[in-house]
Amino acid sequence: MAGTRDRTLHYLALVVLAVLCLTPIYIMISTGFKQQVLILSGEPVWFFFTPTLDNYEYLMTRGKFDRYLTNSIIVGSVSTFLTLILGGFCAYAIARTEFHGRRTLASVSLLLRMVPPAVLAIPAFAIVITFGITNDYAVLIFFYTALNLPFTIWLLFGFYRQIPVELEEAAIVDGASPLQVFFRVLMPLMKSGYAVAAIFTFRIAWNELILALLLTGRNSRTLPVAAAGFITDTGVEWGRIMAMGTLIVIPPLLFTFFAARQIIAGLTAGSVKG
Amino acid sequence: MADSRRWAPYLFILPAVLVMLAGLVYPVIDAFRLSFLDWEIGQPIEQARSVGWSQYRRMLEDPDVRESLWVTIRFGFWTITIEMALGVALALLLEKPIRGASVFRTIFILPLMVSPVVVGLIWRYLFDARAGWINHYLQQMGFEPLVWLGDAELAFFAIVVTDIWQWTPFIFIIVIAGLQALPGDVIEAARIDGTNWWQQVFLVKLPMIRSILLIALLMRLIDVFRGMEVMYIMTGGGPGRATELLSLHIYNRAFNAQQLGYASAIAVLLIVLVFALSMAILAVSNPMRTRSDI
Predict the structure, then answer these.
(1) Which of A104, A273, B77, B178 is least crowded, fewest Cβ atoms below 10 Å from its Cβ?
(2) Are A21 and B98 a contacting pair at CB < 8 A?
(3) Exposed/middle/buried for B145, CB within 10 Å: 0-12, 13-18, 19+?
(4) Which residues constitute the domain of residue B249?
């Protein structure tokens, strides 16, 4: 009997925690569908209000949201693609081959993973004013690729290490070149590893604010920069601000719902396996 | 054939190494170089005066830097203590695998996945003095509404609450993964030996996952030094410097006070702190050890 009561308490605790996690997100999403009058009345309305699309309409028509969205998608996907290609090769070499500096590279890239964006900000700014690149996302894509490489290498290294070496040895005996081994034998087995890496890489590029503030101009602004500008410019337009937040959060939410298992694998990889 | 096998590894690592050298190593070195220049925004960098180590000396005596460091330490202390305590306690209570666990876990990682900028927006709204929900409920319970983000102590409290909301699930998830990876027979043996729940927790389970706990703690600490986005959105570091973590202080110094050279000197201090903490992680567990070492 005690077992049933324990289990009920267990579920009850989990439900309370889930509500705590979800409430702020729910408030944001619902506020995005409210009229400004209702929001400014200060009366929290949880469920029953007449929803409006005014805030979204404003973002789409006058907020240049489509422009920022396109920028964010381009920056996010191009840097993710580059990171996976470069990081994949590098992780493979560290996991599978012997070369001078292998251990140094492994440890140094772990240190580099921790470089704070605030440290990159001033040198990045110096580069931009020296070369005069202010309205293009190439520099931003480059920095995001660099920022994401250490974690990606380290994560993929762990996945490569789990694949039995015998598979590659068999392929090499059959006369496959290193590139063929990489693409034909390992790639298919690494699918879930690359999926985890892609989620984390895209998420960083999609969410990053500091470098994007410095390295983008009027036309290359990404969504976080636009959102940050929004709150300083408009102050109390909470409906629009929350609508913008909701739109920014859509890709991370989709990742979470469709790949929660992979995300947890990525989060725990560092500490639990070690 | 044998020859190609020898140089192939270098070819595989080269592109990634070049990008990391140019995008991470070079900026870190450049920050060091800039820290010796008295360089301000609007001034061409060639005209910046070289001032030697004087900006480091200035930094050591600068009350603003000291205050920002102190804010960072206090923030780290409160957030990490509470997050670790809550996260570990919850993981211990809820470690038993149950049906539907994956649904809950999906919900628990949501706060981690939300962009820091959006986290800042949400909580700025909730803490807003006029339209905010928190003040509304305070008033309903008969308290005076507070100007949360306009008062030093309250604003600090607000950013701590926000951080706890976002990061407690992280501790919870990795501790629960660690607990579930423990060999069952050890716990079983402890149980047969007649230990109670508390003894199992403090004498068996927690000691066995201590490296996970230590790494989680160090990772959170590094995040505290790296993070600034949530505060940038919620308070901008204010009022005064009440919520200005070290990273945000560097940003504000460089781009609001326009002292790029001096801000670089503080950035060097930050990188030294972060690298020291990272070395500690490497010492606890280097996941890139070769198989033979393990």
Answers:
(1) A104
(2) no
(3) middle
(4) 67-286
